[in-house]
Amino acid sequence: MVRLSTSNEEGDVDPNSITHEEEEEEEEEEKKTPFVRSIHRVVDSFPTRMLVVFDKSVGKAPDALHSPHTKSVGCLCDHFASVHPGAITVNLGPSGRLAYSLDRQNPLHPRTLRDRGPYPGDQVVRDLNGKFAFILYDNSAKMTFVAADADRSVPFYWGSDSEGNLVFSDDVEAVKKGCGKSFAPFPKGCFFTTCGGLRSYEHPFNELKPVPRVDSSGQVCGANFKVDSKSKKESSGMPRVGSAANWSSHY
């Protein structure tokens, strides 16, 4: 759901054209700024329409997101495909389903991300520049990682359907169909993981508190989540870089 660009302001970078001296300079820069130096910017995303429905085993929706008397359509991905001709649906087995359309998709756009981890999830997202919202899913581990930028620049929504499944999409109408009133814009400056739930990457040691959303008729429609400046999470400390333990799994 996000396009990662390896181009700089002067044009695209050919990895084969990088000299030995440039590689040494890049290594020095990596020591100063962790994460992925090959990503110079994140381009405004959502060239497609996309919908993901995760089973509760992959992502449990916060209780505050669910509104009582929620009405939703069944087989949300099928509904999505019906309103987006040519959409592709992928069955993730018991973990859920996803669907996406290929409208305005550029098949030549680079999609390579160089692994320089492991780093804490909040640091990874905080180091990204640009407008973004994305969903990562590891089918082997049955885990997901979802995030959006701090300005909510990209339309991105989440919700809980009548069966308690977690729904993500850039199509607000699809989320409304699937979740009824149990939906909200995805919180800006936050990320969601299977293990850790919803967290703020700008304030990773603060708790998030739900604030009910109320529509024009006075009915509760899910919740927004705000950083609670008075509540701090306990920290077990940050493992040193180079540790044999892969502490990215904690996110």
TrEMBL record:
<protein>
    <recommendedName>
        <fullName>DUF3700 domain-containing protein</fullName>
    </recommendedName>
</protein>
<feature type="domain" description="DUF3700">
    <location>
        <begin position="51"/>
        <end position="227"/>
    </location>
</feature>
<dbReference type="InterPro" id="IPR029055">
    <property type="entry name" value="Ntn_hydrolases_N"/>
</dbReference>
<feature type="region of interest" description="Disordered">
    <location>
        <begin position="230"/>
        <end position="251"/>
    </location>
</feature>
<feature type="region of interest" description="Disordered">
    <location>
        <begin position="1"/>
        <end position="35"/>
    </location>
</feature>
<dbReference type="Pfam" id="PF12481">
    <property type="entry name" value="DUF3700"/>
</dbReference>
<dbReference type="InterPro" id="IPR044828">
    <property type="entry name" value="TSJT1-like"/>
</dbReference>
<dbReference type="InterPro" id="IPR024286">
    <property type="entry name" value="DUF3700"/>
</dbReference>
